[in-house]
Specification:
CATH class: Mainly Beta
Helix content: 10-25%
CATH superfamily: Alpha-ketoglutarate-dependent dioxygenase AlkB-like
Distance between the termini: 53 Å
Number of domains: 1
Oligomer: single chain
Radius of gyration: 17 Å
Strand content: 25-35%
Number of strands: 13
Shape: globular
CATH architecture: Sandwich
CATH topology: Jelly Rolls
Structural class: alpha+beta
Strand order of the largest sheet: 1-2-11-8-13-6-3
Order of helices and strands: EEHEEEHEEEEEEEE
Bound molecules: N-(carboxycarbonyl)-S-(naphthalen-2-ylmethyl)-L-cysteine, fe (iii) ion
């Protein structure tokens, strides 16, 4: 019998799993880049800090959010949209770091989507207890392009539904370093994140960071 020599998935295998006809999980795809990604995220969050946005219905989101790239995702009493300026400081969102862009392009290529050039990366921060209820991503103008998501930090249970809110959902664990590419006919499926369980990640601490790269404009 071989005992595990490492206390986490630092040597996790790079496997792929199909979640739907056009959705693929690339396990551990970003694992060896985590440290540099976190450094870039910190720089973005210094210029445009994480904030808890208000939904049009008047609720405060439990997920902290910021963006980088030409556009950033915004929610307030007026609705959901992409904007060129960060409403908190009136300045353009921080540019998309080259390393983040390269990772997203490589992941899209690997999953069979060539020529992916995202113009925004939404950065979600989940502390234990934070969640994202079932929703569709419909604010992007280009829905033919896929969405690439990168998970860092403590694990989360992702819920993957169908094209109707009432469709059954499948649970998928997303762990540190996992990348998922969602495209084609899966692009408008309902999805969400269950409330995060308290946990601590050796590199990221007691939180989960999720990056989603999109073609919004
Ligand atoms: C499936 N974020 O920001 S990423 C979101 O983990 C969002 O923070 C979640 O849902 C998170 O909108 C999930 C995975 C994801 C993103 C977009 C999708 C899955 C998707 C669009 C269509 C289908
Ligand atoms: Fe979403």
């Amino acid at each position: 019998m071989t005992l595990p020599l490492f206390d986490d998935n630092a040597l996790a295998e790079r496997t792929t799993e199909d979640l739907g006809p056009a959705s693929r999980v690339l396990r551990a795809f970003a694992l060896d880049k985590a440290t540099e990604l976190l450094r870039e995220i910190e720089r973005v969050a210094t210029a445009s800090p994480f904030r808890h946005m208000t939904t049009p219905g008047g609720h405060t989101m439990s997920v902290g959010m910021t963006s980088c790239g030409e556009l950033g995702w915004v929610s307030d009493a007026r609705g959901y949209r992409y904007a060129r300026l960060d409403p908190r400081n009136g300045r353009p969102w921080p540019a998309m770091p080259e390393r983040l862009l390269t990772l997203a392009k490589n992941a899209a290529d690997t999953a069979g989507f060539s020529d992916f050039t995202p113009d925004t990366c939404l950065i979600n921060r989940y502390l234990p207890g934070a969640r994202m209820s079932l929703h569709q991503d419909k604010d992007e103008r280009n829905r033919d392009a896929p969405i690439v998501s990168v998970s860092l930090g403590i694990p989360a249970t992702f819920l993957f539904g169908g094209n109707q809110r009432s469709d059954p959902t499948r649970r998928v664990q997303l762990r540190h370093g996992d990348v998922v590419v969602w495209g084609g006919e899966d692009r408008l499926r309902f999805h969400g994140i269950q409330p995060l369980k308290p946990d601590d990640h050796r590199l990221v601490g007691p939180q989960r960071i999720n990056l989603t790269f999109r073609c919004a404009g």
